[in-house]
Structure formats: C-alpha cells, structure tokens
Amino acid sequence: MDAFVAAAGLVFQFKVLWVICASAAFGIFVGAMPGLTATMATALLVPVTFFMDPVPALGAIVTATAMAIFAGDIPAAMLRIPGTPASAAYTDESYAMSKKGELDLNLGVNLVFSVLGGMIGVVILVLCAPALAEAALQFSSYEYFWLAALGLTCAIFMTAEDPLKGVASLLFGLAINTIGIDPAAGFPRFTFGSVEMLQGISFIPAMIGMFALSELLRGAVSVDQQGAVLAQKIGNVFVGVWGVFKKYWFNFLRGSAIGVVIGALPGAGADIAAWISFAVSKKFSKEPEKFGTGHIEGIVDATSANNSALGGAWIPALVFGIPGDSITAIVIGVLYMKGMNPGPSVFLQNPQFIYAVFIIFVLANILMLPFGWLAIKSGKQILRVPRNVLLPVILIFCVVGAYAMTNSVFGIWIMLIMGVIGWLMEEHHFPIAPAILGLVLGEMFEQNFMTSMIKADGNALFFFQRPIAATLGVVTLAIWATMIWRGVKGRKATLAPSDA
Amino acid sequence: MRANDAICGIVLIALSALMIALTASFPDFPGQKYGPALFPRVLGAGLILCGGLLIWKHYASTQRSARWVALAPWTREPWRLGSFVLMLALLLLYIGASEKVGFIPIALVFLVVLFLWFGVRPLVAIITALIATIAIHEFFATLLRVPLPRGWLDQFL
To answer: How far apart are CA A206 and CA A388, in angstroms?
Structure first.
C-alpha cells in the first residue's frame, strides 16, 4: 500500500500531468495523420523523454501510444486510410459505415470501445504482472536464456510474412548488437578502431532510423497524394453507443481478451491483435454476410483489441524485460538507459515505479475520452495539415533527436544508415520489428548465453536441468520444429499482413 | 527497388562471411573455451543458413520473378526519385556541415530546400522554416540543454 501511495505521489504532480496531457495531444495528432504510426510516435518521443525522470518519461510513452492507436481510427473512417497499421483491419468496414451516413456512430463506438478495451488491458496487466514476477524471481541464466529465445522466436512466428526473413531480420539485429565492447570479456568487436563505435550502436538513433526515417523515405515519394476528407458534419458521436454495447458486449470482451493475449506475445502488437480479432468476429458472427457492408460488429471486436493489446504488451516487458511489441521494445531500451533494468527484481526494489505505470495507464485511458472527442471534432482540420510541410519538419526533428543521444553527428550517421537499411528491408519484405527486438535483447541474450555456456562447460544438457528451463526449452524447440516443418512444406505461417 | 530473394540471400551470405572472417582476430582467453568470437560466429552461421535457404526457396519456387532487380514505378518519375535522393543528400550535408555552420543556418537551408522541392509556396516555406527551426532550437538547446552546434551564430546565441 505504501508503494501505491508513493506511486500516486510520483504521478499526481503538476509536471507529470502536464507531460501526460501534452503527449496525449501529440499522440492524437501522430495517430490521426496517415503514415505516422504509434511506433513512430514513440520513436519521436524517446529523445525527449530521455531527458526526463522515469515516471514522466513512461507517462509520455504510455499516453501517446494509447491515443495514437485510437486516433488511427479517425482517418480510417473519414479517408479510408488507416492512421496507424492497428486500424487497418477494419478500415474498409469503417469507411463503408461512413458512406452509409453512420460516421458519428462509427467514431463514437471506436472511441468508447477503445477506452474500454484499454481498461481491460490495464486490469489484466495489474492482475498478472506481479504474480508472474514472483515466479520469475526464481529464474537463473538458463531460464532467461530460454525465455529470451522463446520471446525472439514468437517475434518471428507472429510478425513475419515469411518466417525465414523474420529469422534473418532477428539475427541481423543481434549481429548489429555485437558491435562494441563484448559483455562477457570486454573485448572491442567490429569497431574498426573508432572510439565512438566502442559504445556500440546506440539504440535510439538506430530505432529512429528504422521506424521513422524509413517511413519518411517512403512518404517522400508520395508526398503529393493526400486523401480527400469525406464531407460530413459530425454530430453527437455518443448517440447509439449504449445500444451497441448492449448488443455486442460479448464481442467487446472477446476482442479485449484476444488483444491482451496477442499483445503479451512477444513481437505481435496492436495491429495483429486487430486483424485476428476482426477475423474471429466474422467467423463466429450470426450475420457474417453483413461484414464488408459497414457493419459495426467486427469493429467492436477489433477496436477493443488494438487498445487492450497495448496493456498486454507491458506484461512480459515489465516482468521479464522481453517486449510484447515494438513499442515496448523501445520502452525497454529506454529503461536500460535509465539504469532501471526491467525484470522481476524491479517489483521488489521499486514497486512504486510499477504502480506508477499502472496508474498512468488508467489515467491515459480516462483522458482518451475527452481528448478523443476533441480529436473527432477537429478531425477534418487535423487531416488537412499538408504532408509536404509536415514531412520535412519531422525529418529535422529526427536529426536533432538522433544527435541529442550521442551529442555528435555519430548519432545522425547511425540514424541515416539504419534508416536506409530499414527502408531496404521493408522493400524486400523483411520485417523490421524482429531486428529491433534483436537489438534490444541482444546484450541480455548474449550474456545469458555465455554465462550458461561457461557454467555448463559446453554440455547442452545443462540447459534443460532445471524444470522451468526444461519446459521453456522444449516449447522453444517445438516451435522451431513446427516452423521448419512448415517451411519445408512450403506453407506460409502468415496470420495477417503485418507492419508493426 | 526490389532485388529478388536469391540476391538477398547472396548479400546475406557475403556479409555474414565477412563478419565471421573478422572474428578470426578476436583473442581467446586462457582457461576458457568460449571467447568474444563465439556469439558473432553463431549468428553468422545462422545468417548464412538463412541466405542459403532464401536462394534455395527462390529457385524452388515456380512463380519466381525472372528479373534480378525490379524498380518500383516511382523510380521512373524524376520528381519522386529526386525527393528520395534529396532527403538523403540533405542528411549528408547536415552531417558534413552542421558542426561548422551551426544548427540554425543549416536547419533553415534544409527545411527551405525540402519545402520548395515538395511544392510549398516560397513565402510559406520561408516562414514555416523559420518558425520550425527556432522552435526546435528552443526546445532542444534551451529546454533540454542539448549542445546543438552554434557555428556561425556563436557570438549571438
């Protein structure tokens, strides 16, 4: 209880609340602009949060991403362009509703169910995380090795169009991470005599490059293509939402539950959660023929799912330090830099910090109602911001953000090179999220691998001697076997078009 | 630009082979079997395997594209291609000149050039560039105390 009071004290300060409100507005804007994603919002925020205390920094990221995921629904309904990939699953359905004249109802449902779905995500996060953390305290390097291996495997299994390219992307991320001083022996690797390379590839500039610069490069070639906003007046968006809730409350619960589970699986985030819950909704619907004609049912499932996935993704991130999606991958990078290595011991040593995250999550979801309402009301104005002005400004912001991490142009170099690599990877359908996971988890993975190898003296059986390690190891190997079997049979493990 | 999977595989194998070759110079530690070279070698082996499988899959596939490299439609439009190249060129210019010239002048040039290229009207371009530059400078240099290069304006800031 003391920790909870301490946490409330950390959150309810004028400065923190101000940061939360500013990030809410920022998240809404980024989410509502087509081409700017929730992950990109995080990438742009990180250089700023770097200079803050942990609680406002996390508050900024949690709030901005929650808002961005909802705000992505606005252009989906008005322009038929999803604001973030998380809204892509039901963009056509939303637009069909708008064309039928149900834009108000659509936006109202999106807003209310985003808030409720987000709340379910938080509740499950609050219930699960501490219990899991208690179990995780018993873990040794073998368990962590397998946990990291399992997490990285899930990342490939869930996001990749072609699992093989997912594996390559992940290995690439891990390989980039070996640049610099090695964690076991302190020997400088692949530095080519450069002093700046000794510290390794700084994570934030790399991430700005891969998530923001590559997106800008893609946007630059279509900068003149701006969609036409549907000319419709927006009235009271909350009319009829209660009716929808009464009719589809089960869809809401199912969508939220799917969202949390998918969010918690490493590598898959809000976008995959929305695709899967939308597909589930259609499959079990009593009126599947109505899907595609502007039917609200699937939207209830999917819009709840993508917001609940955000909370779900924090479960493995806080408990094990293994990110549930690309946003929490960035968060973990931030936590490491602040010297607060995520993991079960944080729950013992700094419980107030964990409670602060919970409180911020609840707060962000409550704030989503007024901010989201304002965003809907000003949606047309937001969507009229010209892309040809926005794009150069974001680019210079990225440059300064990357510079601020190293206080030298070395950061900009990293951003530029990783940005071009990220762009090339996307062009060739190599998913980026596994590479970022590799970059974030690389050091922990290598350290546990080396410690385990040295302890076991090369005897692979040691990796399976403890019961939990054995279970995790067997599950991981089973997934690998399934993937290889699928690969040989030539079947794709694709669940949905993904773009984290 | 999109190269086919076989080329991706070849590039992966070449880079991984280079990485493994570089680990040859890493020292061993007396009394320990596993040194700093182990992990990069494991990764390199994995990447080579991926590359090989990509090549194999490409040639096993019945519907493989005959072209080695396919160019996206936008690369044939000079203006779009120019946008892409210009962004990279401006980033290189920033890296090369910012320490000497300073953040404010280089950011102004950076923004005005891009705005004009993207078809923003000149007056709007200049005013927006000024506002954006000053806002970003204030935010990062004053509020967050990032030592943005002062360059030519050193005596005025």
So the answer is: 25
> CA-nearest residue of chain B to A390?
B115
Query: Which A-chain residues 121-150 have CB contacts (< 8 A) with chain B?
Result: none
Supply the pLDDT for residue B87: 94
Structure tokens at A96: 């069909």
Residues of B in contact with A386 (CB under 8 A): 120
Asked casually if ipTM beats, i.e. exceeds, 0.90, the reply is yes
Return the SS3 of B139: helix
Q: Average pLDDT per run of 10 along chain B, which is 157 residues long?
A: 85 94 82 80 92 88 71 86 94 93 94 94 95 92 86 78
Nearest to A406 by CA among A207, A216, A201, A214: A201
CB contact under 8 A, B132 and A393: yes
Pairing of strands A180-181, B2-3: unpaired
Whole-number percent of chain A with pLDDT over 70: 95
Q: How near does any CA of chain A get to the CA of B150, in Å?
A: 13
CA separation for the pair B123, B5 (Å, rounded): 47
Query: Looking at the whole model, is its pTM more than 0.90?
Result: no
Contact check, Cβ <8 Å, B87/A220: yes
Q: Does B30 touch chain A (CB under 8 A)?
A: no
When pLDDT is cut at 50, 70 and 90, the band that residue A34 belongs to is confident
Pairs of CB atoms within 8 A across A/B? 150
Residue with tokens 């309810």: A12
> Do A164 and B33 count as a contact with CB atoms less than 8 A apart?
no
| pLDDT for residue A498 is more than 50 | no
Instruction: Please compute Rg for chain B using Cα positions.
Output: 24
Residue A500, pLDDT score: 38
Instruction: Tell me what percent of chain B is helix, strand and coil, each rounded to the nearest 5.
Output: 70, 5, 25
